[in-house]
Structure formats: C-alpha cells, structure tokens
Design a protein that fits this description.
The two termini are 31 Å apart. The strands form 4 sheets. The protein has a 6-stranded parallel β-sheet, sandwiched between helices. It has 16 helices and 13 strands. Helices cover 36% and strands 16% of the residues. The protein folds into 2 domains: 8-217 and 340-388, Rossmann fold (3-Layer(aba) Sandwich), CATH 3.40.50.10540; 245-328, formyl-coa transferase, domain 3 (2-Layer Sandwich). By secondary structure, it is an alpha/beta fold. Helix 1 packs across helix 6 and helix 6 (177-200) crosses helix 7.
Length: 392
C-alpha cells in the first residue's frame, strides 16, 4: 500500500528519463500505464546484449537496459498515429492524474495529445514533458541525448583525469546521469504539482529539459565558478574544495579517502604514522591543504602503498575516517551492508521465472515500497486496461 496508491499515470515516455521517473512513481504505489508501439515497444527493449534468459537458458527479447527502468508498470500497446489509438489515449487521459511524455516539442500536437489539447478536456491533468532543451528557447526543437548533454552542460569539463597526466581528457559518466537526474527532477515536480492540485483543483504542465537539469545539478562546481570566476577543471578522483579527498594507491589497489574535516585529517595522519603532517603549517586547515594539495598528496601516497586496501580500511574505520574500496559491481552486490538493506531483489517473470532488480533506496516507515510487477512484456496488459475503459 504505497503512498501513491490510487494515483494513475499515463506514460508516453521512452528510453530512460521518463521511464525512470514513472518507475519510481510505480514503486511508490501509482498505477502506471506504459504506452508502447505495437510490435516494437520501447526502443530500449532492443538495446542489448545482455538479454534476460528464459527458464531453459535461451535469450529472450527483454534487454537488461529495458529491465532497469520499467518495473511496476502495465504495458499497453497502442498506435497513437491512428484515430482509434488517439481515442484510446484520450480515454486513458480522462482517468489519469498524470501524463508523462518525452516527444520532441510539438510532436504530440498533430495527434491532439499535446498539453494544450488535453488540458482543455481534463483541466486536472498534470502533464510532464521531458525534452532535450525544454519547451522554449532557440534549441527547443532539437533532439537531446545524454552524452551530448553531459558535454554541453559542463559535466565532461570536470570529469576525467587532469590534462597532462596519463589518461587525461574529458570523460562522460558511466551511466546516463543527465537522463536519470531529469527523471528524478520530474518525480519531485510531479509530487509538488499533485500537492498544488489538491489545494487548487488545477493541473499544469511541467517542462523539464535535460540541458537545464544537467546544469542545475552541478551544485558546488557551478558556485565555484560563479563565486570564484574561474571555470573548474578535471581533477580525476580529487575534490575541488576538500583535501585529501581522492583515490590513493595501496599495496594491492586503491582506496577512496574522503577526509571531510580537520579532525578527520589529524586522525588519518595518526593512523598513517605521520602525525607530523597534522601540525605542518601547510596542512593545518582544509583551506591550507587545498592550497598545498600538490605537496601533501605525494606524502600520503607513499604511506598508503605500504598496506593493502582492506588493512587501511579497517584501521581508518576504527577512527571514523571515511574511506572505502573501489568496488566492481560484482563486489557491490556482495557487500554485506547492501545485502542487509535488501538492495538486490528478484521478481516473478513469465518468461524467465524471476528477474533480478535493484531495490528502491527509499525506506518508508508507514508505507513501505512494494514490488508487485516485474517489467512487463510488450502489450501484456493491453486487453485488460482497454477492457476497463469499455474498449472492445
């Protein structure tokens, strides 16, 4: 019985940003109708390998990518380019609280499914539009893709090893963070719009652009530039405002050290057997350590190379200095803390028996997240959903 039980969502989105948002809302108890093209479905169904294997070990048509963002939904195969399909969507919109779409600006107007058309019929409808560049501005009509947005929105200018070092140069993040963060912003905006509708009775359109989102969540790096006037640069694993806060080599790999204050630095130095560094005038405060980063880090590197990652982690944990190994995903899912938190789960699946999933990280005390539905097969719920609408 999730907190959004009774809320109905008409999901016209594809790929990742929109489906990520609607999966989260489904986790919270909303009923999500995922509208897909008959015979083809969401493009990500075909983005593989890897593909889920059935009970006999044969590959299915369900890609891992698709399975990552579509839990808890009901798949309804409708061709919105046809008059019958448009009629069906309007009937669903009449029942829905929220519509989520990520078509190009104006792309749904020719079908009469744009915000202006539907809001006249259903003024309580909350209509969330996710596009590359938003509904306005000179580039509103352009398509937006995550990697390009990471580049144009500044993220790649601060991600990667420093220029001049081996491997130096811009890097994109290993997952589609512009898409994912747009989805997260969409969820918070939808919940705010629901609250507003409860008070006013009015729906509204939510306009989310990937580029806007990418710029917005650069957080302290934005302010480093706006306040300091100097564009931040790539620093590998290092932090622009805190030292030492980066990966350091150990005897058998690397440790991620995250010293967040002066007390932790003193404790770290004591564990390393270099208490002298804590009283060195160059390193007394974080401000001084940032200024003398290039002098401090080589000294720490020589210390950390003398023990293994596990040995240093154990010693630093005892004095409450944040640190940790750089895990592969295989190691992540064997982490005892994550096991205790239930972050891996398996849901019943009609072809594979079960399908693995990563749990929602939110823990509600009164309305715990439940997982009634695995990512649906294409069109699995078309008949039942349309029958409820009185369609043949």
């Amino acid at each position: 019985m999730g907190p959004l039980q009774g809320i109905k969502i008409l999901d016209l989105s594809r790929i990742l940003a929109g489906p990520w948002a609607t999966q989260l809302l489904a986790d919270y108890g909303a009923d999500v109708w995922k509208i897909e093209r008959p015979g083809v479905g969401d493009d990500t169904r075909h983005w593989g390998p890897p593909f889920l294997k059935d009970r006999e070990g044969r590959e299915t048509t369900e890609s891992a990518y698709y399975l990552s963002a579509n839990r808890g939904k009901r798949s309804v195969a409708i061709d919105i380019t046809t008059e019958a399909g448009q009629v069906a969507i309007r009937k669903l919109a009449a029942e829905a609280d929220i519509l989520v779409e990520n078509y190009k600006v104006g792309g749904l107007a020719k079908y009469g499914l744009d915000y202006d058309s539907l809001s006249k019929l259903y003024p309580r409808l909350i209509y969330c539009s996710i596009t590359g560049f938003g509904q306005t501005g000179p580039d509103a009509s352009l398509a937006g893709y995550d990697a390009m947005v990471q580049a144009r929105g500044g993220l790649m200018s601060i991600t990667g090893e420093r220029d001049g070092l081996p491997g130096g140069g811009p890097q994109k993040v290993g997952v589609a963070v512009a898409d994912l963060m747009a989805g997260m912003y969409a969820v918070s905006a939808i919940l705010a719009a629901l609250y507003h509708r409860d008070k006013s009775g009015q729906g509204q359109q939510i306009d989310i652009g990937l580029l806007d989102t990418q710029v917005a969540w650069l957080a302290n790096q934005n302010m480093n530039y706006l306040v300091g006037g100097v564009p931040p640069t790539r620093q590998g694993t290092a932090h622009p405002n805190i030292v030492p806060y980066q990966a350091l080599p150990t005897r058998d790999g690397f440790i991620m050290l995250a010293v967040g204050n002066d007390r932790q630095f003193v404790a770290c130095c004591e564990v390393l057997g270099r208490s002298d560094l804590a009283i060195d005038p160059r390193f007394l405060t974080n401000r001084q350590r940032v200024q003398h980063r290039d002098q401090l880090i080589p000294l720490l590197e020589s210390c950390f190379k003398t023990k293994t990652t596990a040995e240093w982690s154990g010693l630093l944990d005892k004095v409450k200095v944040p640190c940790g190994p750089i895990n592969t995903l295989a190691e992540v899912f064997e982490d005892e803390q994550l096991k205790a938190r239930g972050m891996r789960l398996d849901l019943p699946h009609p072809m594979a028996g079960t399908v693995p999933q990563v749990a929602n990280p939110v823990k509600f005390s009164a309305t715990p997240v439940e997982y009634p539905l695995a990512p649906p097969l294409l069109g699995a719920d078309t008949d039942s959903v349309l029958r409820d609408l009185g369609e043949d």
